[in-house]
Amino acid sequence: MRAALGLVSAWIIPLLLAGIPLVAVLRGVKVYPAFLEGAKGGFETAVRIVPSLVAILVALGMLRASGALDALAAALAPLTSALGLPASVVPLVLVRPLSGGGALGVVGDVLRAEGPDSYAGRLASVMAGSTETTFYVLAVYFGAAGVTRYRHALPAALLADLAGFAAAIVVVRLVFGP
Amino acid sequence: MTFLWTALVVAAVAFAAAKGRMAEVGAAAMESAGKAVALALALAGVMALWLGLVKVAEEAGLVSAVARVARPLLSRLFPEVPADHPAMGAIVMNVSANVLGLGNAATPFGVRAMQALEELNPRKGTASDAQALLCALNTASVQLVPATVIALRAGAGSAAPAEVLGPTLAASLCGVTVAVIAAKLLARVWPSGEGGGPGGRSDP
Questions:
Q1: Which residue from A57, A152, A161 is facing B132, i.e. has the nearest CB?
Q2: Of A90, A157, B50, B145, which has fewest CB within 10 angstroms of its CB?
Q3: Residues 138-157, chain B, touching A (beta carbon < 8 A)
Q4: Phi and psi (nearest 5°) for B126?
């Protein structure tokens, strides 16, 4: 399991980096201008998330400095450690469905405080990558269609988030060890 | 988010007041604000690389190639949507764009799909089974490459930023499976028909 997933992880990006331009050139695409056009969008995305990154990192930084995060961690330790969820990752579970930029802020905070290659750092990475900003998606999609009664859409979406979080804990433990 | 954010900041200040750590909290606020911008800059390079590559893939017709593969599977998930209806095309493009990590392209397709599904919806204003399923699929996020997270890890000095790629794919597949099952099962609990209580049948 670990070897297979590790192999997939190591190969996908280099293969895509070489493969996509190769296929595109063979199909007559002007690769370089297309790349530059897309790259510009990537830079703009990074700039666009600055405000929410500032908001979340400031709030979390204040919580950590005040000692509240440590107190919360101590209080929740019996529950969260039984679930395999480090206290620093708990805020991610709460923020992820509400705000995409906010979730990135929490992940950035965990990576900085505990290191990207720690258990908490890997878990936060996998959790953030395998779920979406549920409330934003529902608001945009149903809002555009003029639907006001969501029926089971919200519980189904939140169940999917929960399943993603639980699966992240199991997979990260299987692949990297706790 | 407004309530959550305000609560976090107020809790920090209240806790600091109780513990006498006000100076540290003030310093941490300023330091974190600077760190946030450094984080965004670290993100910018990898995001630019990835979205540049994705644009090349788009122009090479690779997105529509993925869509051709996804179509048979998706028409089985949405049996009530006619295969030649515009809604089906938009659903296929929406899911394909999501898989390729084209968040910005996925949203317009998703919006178009929801609007086309609303035309098929017998009860306007109330989510149809297909609309609820499409939303659940979109909130579960299957991505081939979680570019943003990898960028964050690279920025934080990870020895192997992309090592989470396989585990992320596995976890999101679990999420999507639960999204489909939950949407199909819960549709019976919240019937689309008017006046039907829990457990009632939806329209055939």
A1: A152
A2: A90
A3: 138-141, 143-146, 148-150, 152-153, 155-157
A4: -115, 130
ipTM of the predicted assembly exceeds 0.85: no
Predicted confidence (pLDDT) per residue in A9-42, tens digit: 678 778 888 999 999 999 999 999 999 998 887 7
Please choose, from the candidates B177, B178, B200, the residue with its C-alpha nearest in 3D space to the C-alpha of residue B189: B200
Tens of pLDDT along A93-136?
888 887 788 888 899 999 999 999 999 999 999 999 998 888 88
CB-closest option in A12, A42, A53 to B36 = A53
- pLDDT tens sequence across B81-120: 988 888 888 898 888 888 877 766 788 788 889 999 999 9
Q: Structural domain boundaries of chain B?
A: 50-189
pTM of the model: 0.78
Give the closest-approach CA distance of A22 to chain B in angstroms: 10
Tokens for A107, please give them: 């992940």
DSSP, residue by residue, A41-52 = HHHHHHHHTHHH
Q: Which of B49, B135, B181, B203 to mutate against chain A (most A CBs within 10 Å)?
A: B135
